[in-house]
Amino acid sequence: MIYFKPTEVLTSECTAIFEAFSGTDKLGECRLLVDGNTSDVFCLTYDIEFPEIGEGLLKSAYNYAANRGAYIGTLSAKDSGKAHTYLNFQCKNGVYTNDIPTLLAGHCSCNDI
Length: 113
Description:
Radius of gyration: 13 Å
Structural class: alpha+beta
Order of helices and strands: EEEEHEEEH
Largest sheet: 7 strands, mixed
Number of strands: 7
Distance between the termini: 23 Å
Number of helices: 2
Shape: globular
Helix content: 10-25%
């Protein structure tokens, strides 16, 4: 079973870190910054062979952000693999973005994964 562990950081550069574990094996990590009603995952690392790990990290981060008043979720992390294709992002100026309820609504099977 995969577990997504949050760690609050609460600095001006990073609000929280999320780590994915299977037992004691670390599978990935993302870093989130919440600023008002906007949240940004600016770092996302995982084995790109398993985009569902990235999806879980993103959903954990955006759920956390929504519980702290954020409405917009962005993904500015470089090299995010295909994890972003599991969520309903729109690409604007090279940054993936959408409202958090849409991002958390589920996996869109219309994307070529």
